[in-house]
Amino acid sequence: MDAIADRAFADTQANPHKLVDETPSSLAVVLDINPLEWRKLEESGSINLRQVVSSVIVMLNSHLSLNSSNQVALYVANSYSHGAQLIYPHPDSTVSSRFLHTPGMYRQFRFIDGSIVDQISHILSEQPETLEQLVGRDPKNQHVKGTLAGAISMALCHINKLQQSDELNALNSRIMVVSISDDSTLPYISVMNAIFAAQKMKISVDVCKLGPSSTFLQQAADATNGVYIYITQPSGLIQYLTTALFIDPMLRPIIVLPTDEAIDFRASCFITNKVIDVGYVCSVCLCILSIIPDDEKCPTCHSKFDHNLITKLKRKPKALPLKKKTKE
Amino acid sequence: MFSMETYSSSSSSSSGAPVICFSTYMAMRTKYVSTTCEEYFWLHRATKWPLNALDSCFICFSVATRISRSTSFEQIWFVTSFSSLPLASSKTLATNASLSSLLLKAFTFSVDSACLKYSSSVESSSPKNGVTSCGSGSTTGSTAKNLYYLGSSLCLMDIDPEFSPSPEHSPESDHEDGKKPSDPLKGANGGYAWEDEYRRSWDIVQEDESGSIESIVSGLMESQKKRYLKNITPFQRGIIRTMVLVLDMSNVMMEKDFRPNRASVMIQNAIEFVGEFFDQNPISQLSVVIMRNGIAQLVSEVSGNPHDHIEALKGIRKLEPQGNPSLQNALEMCRGLLLHVASHCTREVLVVFGALFTSDPGNIHKTIQDLVKEKITVRVIGLTAQVAICQELCRLTNYGDLKNSYHVVLYEQHFKDLFMDAVTPLAVTKVESQKTDGFTLVKMGFPSRVSDNQPTFCSCHSKAVYGGYICPNCKSKVCVLPTVCPCCDLMLILSTHLARSYHHLFPLKLFKEVPVSETYTSTHCFGCQTQFPKGAKGDSNTNVREYQTSSRYHCQDCGQDFCIDCDVFIHDALHNCPGCEADSRKL
């Protein structure tokens, strides 16, 4: 009988795999709803927003069904009139009575589905007239900036709060971004700041990429041990979401991530906003320039550059930085 | 060992009631090692002394015991010197640094003839950089050696021309403990810290109308979190840095005031520092030097690879601290290491200095002048007390800015914080920026990463590797970044490396606390969507009102309100305002 109280016996019960499974995790999804990009995508005939939203809802539900303490959150970004916004769990909404009667469906799922669809259709219904105002007047839509960084920042704030509360500090978190816009809409510094914050908090950022590919999101996934997948077959989106993009943070050290190894690490020029591979860097503020400014002053920090050096750089740009280095 | 006899004899020899009290108390302390409340109160009643004074006596005594055990000093010195100590409150004494500064005060105040004779002998034997020659003057015998060890702190302070040797000068200004650099001993009310009224937390916590203390407790908690507030003026900073980390490995680092001892705590902190330093300053370079046995030893060469330094630091963990430190030797080595550094990089030295003296081969003042000439900035983290030579070193190499360059560790967390302060790049001073005729523009390449199925040789180490980075200029493959391309000499870095330093340059504006009122416009924190507490009236009690908060922190650019947790997180880690970023309108 004493053998039952033996340590070896007790140890077998604390199965490490069980421990892994029991840890709850939270998933924050950021959905890019840039109207112009969606329009382009729909016209190409590959996929539309409705299909993506329904796939995302399936993903959220399946995440919730894995563990009773799992949590989900959904943010939208790049809306022209609303910017970045939290869709679910919406702070103001109460459980609507029509979601209470749910024959044949788990009530939590019904509630999530209903509130997400309600919120998104609410945002989209307001979109057309504001869109006309914004885009119709100005074809380059100069008045609108990308808000993906804002949505990621909000998600990070939310996760930070969850991690600080005592009972949930063991919670694993990850962020998934469904992106369709290209890099020109991303504010570079904000995105980078968000990436580093996520990296420090050990939160993976997974990227599900539709439309044109994005260098910065590739870098985000790379820096945070996340998955970057370019969706080649949009019709099978739900399969991507529930397999490759469904890896729990606890499993990441074990699993070979289905991500792209070759990554474009180019940076964006501060003046022209072009993506470049060789550039000049101001030694004071580290801003990246593709061209030497005419006034020989840094456009961001206004430091004056060494005139001699500038003329050298201009005359023989390839050989002379080398000479400069060997001299000193 | 201490005994009752020693104390009774000392108290009888030196006059005055306080000393008798001391000796009674101390004799008692030797009998009962553990501190009990009754003991305190008994003594309090018996002697009519304020409790904090008793406390300070006890702490002085314990320091004295510790030092004298290891040095076999004459105990009487301590007892006599204590009698002239100012009565510091227990609050100000709770830290190592102030302990040691008290001990120093004991020295400087000491009227014992032997002590004076000793310090004068030091002065006569070495007018310039006393300690070295003093060490050679009093050579053998353990007592002499110990005298030399303790006396050195005194003689450095006294001999330095900047500081008058008169005892009434030293206790006020020489023993800063780094926290409030202007006049650290001054408390909030302008008087000395120990004269401040003690604020009891139970006076502040009071029930509101509904009988709940929840709001005031949360206010107290918030006031603790508010400490992150930093200076957010965007400075020009020297982002591309070259730093030499100088670690003290002399035998004072065996002291056990940090557990297990100073040396291992220092090395542990240094390892964390190296990681954090390269995390925040990815294009910077570092080197590690230790001071041991009177010489400076190079632990790791100047390089930009954090792993080399961390391995080297792990290697010196097993090394036992030994001998005397030599600040001059270390600084000369730093000069040599920083000689080739390009003009667009900063040259910095961070010294962790545990000892109170330095044993130098030549004139350290000359070395300091050379450092100033070569624009090398030196920061010092002292472990014991402020030392005049370090003070001078920091003042001269930082354009007189002693406030940010010289600190003495107060407690273990403070040690870590001081290390982390050095991670932030230094601001470019006005004097410096006026001197230079222009800043450098560096040409850099941003390579792309490739992954091959077949391993190929990299051009930097000639090793066969699968993946790698392709230089955009000459298309050669390198395996680690940041580096200089071995073929075309182009500086290769990741753009993410540069981006990591941006928040130093474009700091986020601080949020403003919303004043307490009965109604607020916002109900939820914009970041985490936590519900805010409802509005409340300002309390009539000023103590309470100070801790009442609206719990809302307002970003003036986007007009969103945040809770304290999000505010701290946003300014500490994220460096992005979610409200401003979530707004799609361009400014």
From TrEMBL, chain A:
Keywords: DNA damage, DNA repair, Metal-binding, Nucleus, Transcription, Transcription regulation, Zinc, Zinc-finger. GO terms for molecular function: zinc ion binding. Belongs to the TFB4 family. GO terms for biological process: nucleotide-excision repair; regulation of DNA-templated transcription. It is found in: Nucleus. It comes from the Eukaryota. Coiled coil: none annotated. Component of the general transcription and DNA repair factor IIH (TFIIH) core complex, which is involved in general and transcription-coupled nucleotide excision repair (NER) of damaged DNA and, when complexed to TFIIK, in RNA transcription by RNA polymerase II. In NER, TFIIH acts by opening DNA around the lesion to allow the excision of the damaged oligonucleotide and its replacement by a new DNA fragment. In transcription, TFIIH has an essential role in transcription initiation. PANTHER family: GENERAL TRANSCRIPTION FACTOR IIH SUBUNIT 3, TRANSCRIPTION INITIATION FACTOR IIH TFIIH , POLYPEPTIDE 3-RELATED. This is General transcription and DNA repair factor IIH subunit TFB4. Component of the 7-subunit TFIIH core complex composed of XPB/SSL2, XPD/RAD3, SSL1, TFB1, TFB2, TFB4 and TFB5, which is active in NER. The core complex associates with the 3-subunit CTD-kinase module TFIIK composed of CCL1, KIN28 and TFB3 to form the 10-subunit holoenzyme (holo-TFIIH) active in transcription. It holds the Pfam family Tfb4. GO terms for cellular component: transcription factor TFIIH core complex; transcription factor TFIIH holo complex. The lineage of its organism: Eukaryota, Fungi, Dikarya, Ascomycota, Saccharomycotina.
TrEMBL record, chain B:
Belongs to the GTF2H2 family. Residues 163-191 are annotated as: Disordered. Its main location: nucleus. One of its GO terms (cellular component) is transcription factor TFIIH core complex. Residues 242-423 form the VWFA domain. It holds the Pfam family C1_4. Component of the general transcription and DNA repair factor IIH (TFIIH) core complex, which is involved in general and transcription-coupled nucleotide excision repair (NER) of damaged DNA and, when complexed to TFIIK, in RNA transcription by RNA polymerase II. In NER, TFIIH acts by opening DNA around the lesion to allow the excision of the damaged oligonucleotide and its replacement by a new DNA fragment. In transcription, TFIIH has an essential role in transcription initiation. It is found in: Nucleus. Keywords: DNA damage, DNA repair, Metal-binding, Nucleus, Transcription, Transcription regulation, Zinc, Zinc-finger. PANTHER family: GENERAL TRANSCRIPTION FACTOR IIH SUBUNIT 2 (PTHR12695), GENERAL TRANSCRIPTION FACTOR IIH SUBUNIT 2-RELATED (PTHR12695:SF2). InterPro entries: C1-like_sf, Ssl1-like, TFIIH_C1-like_dom, TFIIH_SSL1/p44, VWF_A, vWFA_dom_sf, Znf_C2H2_type, Znf_RING/FYVE/PHD. This is VWFA domain-containing protein. Transmembrane segments: none annotated. Residues 169-183 have a biased composition (Basic and acidic residues). NCBIfam families: ssl1 (TIGR00622). It comes from the Eukaryota. One of its GO terms (molecular function) is zinc ion binding. GO terms for biological process: nucleotide-excision repair; regulation of transcription by RNA polymerase II; transcription initiation at RNA polymerase II promoter. PROSITE patterns: VWFA, ZINC_FINGER_C2H2_1. CDD domains: vWA_transcription_factor_IIH_type.
